[in-house]
Amino acid sequence: MTSSEPIRQSPFASFAALVFAVLSILIFIGTAVWFWIQAPDTVASHFDSSGQPDDWSSKAGTLGWLVPIGVGIPVLFSIRWIWEKLPISLINIPFKDYWLERGERAYLFDCVMEFMRIVGGTTALLLTSVLVMIMREGRGATMPTGMTFLPTGVFLIITAASLINLVRRLRPPR
């Protein structure tokens, strides 16, 4: 491969991204079940900018909005046919026209799906950490401020790395 050729995706990378998304969803579901069994009836449902709880609700209410988001987003991001059925004009990614003009729609969507599955998986893991933080507060343990922001930082780093990888792989040869 020369430097002017695009960086092609290995089938393993696409499969690994799907496995990552599925495992992340399963970890989230397992944590939600643990939360349902172990959490007190009233839990912190909102945290201020310093990471301290400033609103409380029932654990059923908290799971009632967290579970659909924690499962729904990664599942939605992982189903390829949904994205392939959208009008291509709605998909806004760099260098899209270059690949479509060359008849490389499959490669384009391979790259997009790897990115979407990684972001979906990290979203599930971010919401898993939210459940753990809520549980700690519910049990009376406070989280150090740094630990409150760590999951968000990891989410942002992984998402940024995935975006950089997407752009790198879609960049046309020079």
From TrEMBL:
Coiled-coil positions: none
Keyword Transmembrane: yes
Positions of the DUF1648 domain: 25-65
TM annotation in the entry: 12-37, 63-83, 115-135, 147-167
Keywords: Membrane, Transmembrane, Transmembrane helix
Protein name, per record: DUF1648 domain-containing protein
